Task: inverse folding
């Protein structure tokens, strides 16, 4: 079941023109959201922030905007069946919404953390500040990390950690939370901004500083976040020559988790 171009379709097949740029080049922009309380209007669903993300990319690329009312209609139809929605927009404004369930092992990962592997420097996200359909670099990174690791960390040519294949990075050290800055070339994640705003309200300091190879060795605990999984601690990071260990049960993770209880 999916929503496409104004219609709810009972099928696992989407028919596209063979010359569609979305098919040929991955020319779509998308956002993935988790529906809380079965409502797009929940403050945790962040519906408007997801629409703003789409609009930002569409405007940047000079693409046609979708029928926003019809887009919401499709999301309302799909949330009756799925708690997670992936909303994509084609250059001509067509909307495409698919749904999925939350990961079966999500609770275990949230509680005990995961193992990550450092990706090859050549593997990066295309147009890093946007979520485009060309996600090959991140997809390859996470698939090459399997089955040893559950997630991959993308790095730049200097070895600085940027983000994971699916989310933004967070670390705790010296009484503060640390996260790579947007200027490093990372996605301005919706959960990332949600958490930053929450921490500022709680008068907790957030340092947006590049994660150099030296800095990451001094972090006590690290995690990644996105709109679906919320916060996932990382207990081990496998590098080319060694591994780094972090505390997945660090008490300060509760500060981040509290931001999703609002």
Result:
């Amino acid at each position: 079941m999916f929503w496409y171009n104004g219609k709810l379709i009972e099928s696992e097949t989407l028919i596209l023109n063979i010359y569609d740029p979305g098919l040929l080049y991955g020319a779509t922009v998308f956002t993935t959201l988790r529906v809380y309380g079965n409502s797009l209007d929940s403050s945790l669903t962040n519906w408007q922030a997801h629409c703003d993300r789409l609009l930002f990319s569409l405007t940047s690329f000079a693409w046609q905007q979708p029928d926003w009312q019809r887009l919401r209609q499709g999301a309302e139809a799909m949330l009756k069946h799925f708690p997670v929605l992936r909303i994509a927009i084609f250059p001509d404004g067509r909307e495409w919404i698919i749904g999925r369930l939350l990961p079966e092992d999500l609770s275990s990962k949230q509680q005990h953390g995961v193992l990550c592997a450092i990706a090859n420097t050549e593997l990066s996200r295309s147009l890093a500040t946007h979520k485009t359909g060309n996600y090959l670099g991140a997809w390859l990174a996470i698939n090459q990390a399997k089955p040893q690791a559950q997630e991959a960390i993308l790095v730049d040519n200097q070895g600085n950690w940027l983000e994971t294949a699916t989310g933004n990075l967070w670390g705790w050290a010296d009484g503060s939370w640390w996260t790579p800055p947007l200027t490093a070339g990372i996605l301005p994640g919706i959960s990332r901004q949600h958490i930053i705003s929450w921490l500022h309200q709680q008068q907790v300091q957030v340092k947006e500083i590049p994660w150099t190879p030296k800095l990451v060795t001094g972090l006590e605990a690290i995690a990644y976040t996105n709109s679906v999984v919320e916060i996932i601690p990382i207990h081990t990071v496998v590098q080319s020559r060694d591994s780094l260990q972090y505390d997945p049960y660090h008490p300060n993770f509760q500060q981040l988790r509290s931001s999703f209880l609002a």
Observations:
- Residues 2-100 form a domain with the D-amino Acid Aminotransferase; Chain A, domain 1 fold (CATH 3.30.470.10).
- The radius of gyration is 18 Å.
